[in-house]
């Protein structure tokens, strides 16, 4: 998928949440699920950028988790994201979690990038 399509996916509907015996489960529309299945590593930069915006950080976090396949817990948080499912079934996510999620994913990205060797690394003293 290209970054434009990834941005379109992020701009689409929100993530809904269900609480089950298996823990928290994020749910997206069928169209969003179809687009999400087309994401690949080239979409990671657009998803990382989306972590910086309050209106897209939750969906970006869900998509990054799915895309990367990182092992994660589903309860009491969903891969570190605290989701409060209320008695009426609505979900609330405190937006103050955004910087923490963004930092976690940027740290993950920096650890997976190959270390670049600079020309001066070969100069002996």
Q: How is this structure best described in words?
A:
With about 120 residues, the protein is an alpha+beta fold. It has one domain (about 5-110). About 40% of the residues lie in helices and about 10% in strands. It contains five helices and four strands. The chain has a two-stranded antiparallel ribbon. It has a two-stranded antiparallel ribbon with strand order 3-4. Strand 1 (about 15-20) and strand 2 (about 25) form a beta hairpin. Helix 3 packs antiparallel against helix 4 and helix 4 packs parallel to helix 5 (about 100-110). The longest helix has 15 residues, at about 100-110. The N and C termini lie far apart (about 45 Å).
Quick recap of the structure?
The protein has helices at about 5-10, 30-35, 45-50, 55-70, 100-110; strands at about 15-20, 25, 85, 90.
Largest sheet: 2 strands, antiparallel
The neighbouring-strand order within the major sheet is 1-2
Order of helices and strands: HEEHHHEEH
Portion of residues within helices: 40-55%
Distance, first to last CA: 47 Å
Strand content: 5-15%
Q: How many helices?
A: 5
C-alpha Rg, in Å?
Answer: 17 Å
Low-pLDDT stretches: 116-125
The beta-strand count equals 4
| Basic shape | globular
Averaging pLDDT over every residue, what do you get? 87
- Quickly give the structural class: alpha+beta
Total count of domains: 1
Keywords:
5 helices, 125 residues, 4 strands, alpha+beta, two-stranded antiparallel ribbon, disordered C terminus
Strand-helix topology:
Blueprint: H1 3-11, E1 16-20, E2 23-27, H2 30-36, H3 44-50, H4 57-68, E3 84-85, E4 91-92, H5 98-112
Antiparallel strand pairs: 1-2, 3-4
């Amino acid at each position: 998928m290209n970054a434009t399509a990834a941005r379109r996916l992020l701009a689409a509907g929100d993530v809904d949440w269900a609480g089950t015996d298996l823990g928290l489960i994020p749910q997206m529309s069928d169209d969003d699920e179809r687009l999400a299945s087309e994401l690949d590593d080239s979409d990671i930069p657009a998803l990382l950028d989306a972590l910086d915006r309050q209106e897209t950080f939750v969906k970006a976090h869900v998509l990054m988790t799915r895309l990367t396949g990182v092992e994660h817990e589903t309860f009491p948080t969903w891969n570190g994201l605290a989701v409060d499912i209320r008695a009426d079934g609505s979900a609330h996510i405190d937006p103050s979690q955004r910087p923490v999620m963004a930092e976690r994913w940027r740290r993950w990205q920096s650890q997976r990038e190959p270390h670049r060797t600079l020309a001066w690394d070969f100069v002996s003293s």
